[in-house]
Write a structure and sequence with these properties.
With 192 residues, the protein is mostly helical. The chain is built from eleven helices and no strands. Helix 8 runs parallel beside helix 10.
Length: 192
């Protein structure tokens, strides 16, 4: 399976089917815990491809999962790549997904809460209430608010409820670094 995917990508790198093969290959590499190779494979998916949204979502998951094991330089490279890709991505759904994943990466250490907050708010303002990714955007909004003004994050969370379990996990994962730095902050404790 692996060799067939590699052969397909090598033989027809510019064919529309190559992006589907890249997604499948990236999934395989992720399952094999080869995250660096998976990142490179997902980044090779063409901007505006029908598979771009999935590639961006999977990139975001990898970056968040590797949170503790990434250097500041690796986080910067991820941010730079996503910001550059935003200039190329014109498909509305893929663009929205990329913005949400960039916001997630902006929350990785060293967190840039103001930039992430701006990204999340501008993305939410362009989304329909039932749009795919809307719940992730709400969860990210809670995290960015907690990073900027912890006392108001509870009211933002209340406005986003009810949330699916994955979104609640996202919030707790995003709050953990703040709680580690501010153990005495009652508002963060209450929010968690």
């Amino acid at each position: 399976y692996e060799s067939l995917l590699q052969e397909h990508i090598q033989r027809w790198p510019n064919d529309a089917t190559a992006d589907q093969a890249r997604i499948w290959f990236g999934r395989l590499l992720t399952a094999q815990n080869k995250s660096d190779e998976a990142v490179a494979t997902y980044q090779a998916v063409t901007a505006n491809s029908e598979h771009a949204s999935e590639a961006y979502a999977r990139l975001g998951e990898i970056y968040v999962r590797r949170r503790a094991n990434q250097s500041t330089e690796e986080v910067k490279q991820a941010r730079d790549w996503m910001a550059a890709r935003l200039q190329l991505e014109t498909d509305p759904d893929a663009n929205t997904e990329l913005k949400l994943q960039l916001a997630r990466v902006l929350l990785l250490p060293p967190a840039d809460y103001p930039a992430a907050d701006r990204m999340v708010k501008s993305t939410i303002s362009q989304m329909q209430p039932d749009a795919p990714g809307r719940e992730l955007a709400g969860a990210l909004s809670v995290i960015t608010t907690a990073g900027l003004t912890p006392a108001t994050a509870g009211s933002v969370l209340s406005g986003e409820l009810p949330l699916q379990l994955d979104s609640l996990r996202e919030i707790l994962r995003g709050l953990q670094p703040m709680r580690d730095l501010n153990r005495e902050d009652a508002s963060l404790r209450a929010l968690a």
